[in-house]
Design brief:
By secondary structure, the chain is an alpha+beta fold. The protein has a single domain, classed as Ribosomal Protein L24e, Chain: T. Helices cover 32% and strands 14% of the residues. β1 and β2 form a beta hairpin. It starts with 15 loop residues before the first strand and ends with a helix. Bound molecules: zinc ion (ZN).
Length: 57
């Protein structure tokens, strides 16, 4: 299994699994990778409700 963000190999019993907004299971080796991935997604334009909340006036 590889990290969904940095593609580093994840050893069994380590890392974490996160479900994205499409219901897809994403493996991460660290919370740092998880945050980077989620931040990139959150930055996308198809999250209009998120843009509204982050001070876009
Ligand atoms: Zn990673």
């Amino acid at each position: 299994m590889k990290c969904a963000f940095c593609s580093k190999a994840i050893e069994e019993g380590t890392g974490m699994m996160v479900v994205d907004r499409n219901g897809k299971l994403l493996p991460f080796d660290s919370t740092k990778c998880e945050k980077n991935m989620l931040k990139l997604n959150r930055d996308s334009r198809d999250f209009k409700w998120a843009n509204n909340q982050s001070g876009r006036k």
